[in-house]
Design goal:
The chain has about 190 residues and is α+β, with helices and mostly antiparallel strands. It has one domain: tt1808, chain A (Alpha-Beta Complex). It is built from five helices and 13 strands. A six-stranded mixed sheet has the order 3-6-8-9-10-11, sandwiched between helices. Strands 5-4-7 form a three-stranded mixed sheet, with helices on one face. The protein is globular and about 55 Å long. About 25% of the residues are buried. The mean pLDDT is about 90.
């Protein structure tokens, strides 16, 4: 008897639409379903601080928009729900004029959730997917050790541009003149 390898069918964005609204977050990477639970209160608190910092900046510098936990569709087999995204004004009408974002945001921010699978998904799977589809900058916020890693797109790879802690200053070429201390995000 031969060993027969079964091929798992790929799940598409159309299949995602049929999933129940059960409080879980469903993402799709290369046709494989990824499931996460609702974020913790600390996770939500950190998202709120990023939103406040970025919206205050954008009120003074109206160069784009920020969305919390938007559905982002990259293609038929890749879809994510990042914690926060920024899209520049020149690109909004092209990729963010419907129900979901269809295309790569300029900046994606993810707050790490506990658990090795969650960390692997954010640091490896999402980083590779975001790079492949052209996300220009990716910030990973580590809530326990209180650091933010900045990665920037270089030669189709989101390469680390540094890990910042404490009073070190955050900045981005996507957001000219934005400056804030890392501990502004983690303040107690």
């Amino acid at each position: 008897m031969q060993n027969v390898k079964t091929i798992e069918p790929l799940i598409s964005i159309y299949d995602l639409e049929a999933l129940p609204d059960d409080g879980n977050i469903y993402e799709l990477f290369e046709g494989e379903l990824s499931v996460a639970k609702a974020p913790s209160l600390k996770h939500q608190e950190l998202i709120g601080r990023f939103v406040t910092i970025l919206n205050n900046y954008l009120d003074q510098n109206p160069i784009g928009r920020v969305w919390l936990t938007p559905g982002v569709i990259f293609d038929e087999y890749n879809s994510a729900i990042p914690d926060l995204v920024f899209i520049s004004s020149e690109r909004i009408n092209r990729i963010a004029s419907g129900i979901h974002i269809v295309g790569a945001p300029d900046l994606v921010i993810e707050i790490l959730s506990p658990g090795s699978e969650n960390v692997r998904r954010d640091q490896v799977v999402k980083r590779q997917t975001y790079a492949r589809f052209g996300v220009k900058e990716y910030w990973i916020c580590e809530p326990v050790l209180e650091f933010i890693e900045i990665s920037r797109l270089q030669n189709n790879v989101l390469a680390s541009a540094g890990v910042l802690r404490n009073a070190e200053e955050m900045s981005s070429p996507l957001l000219p003149d934005l400056k804030f201390a890392v501990n502004d995000v983690f303040r107690k």
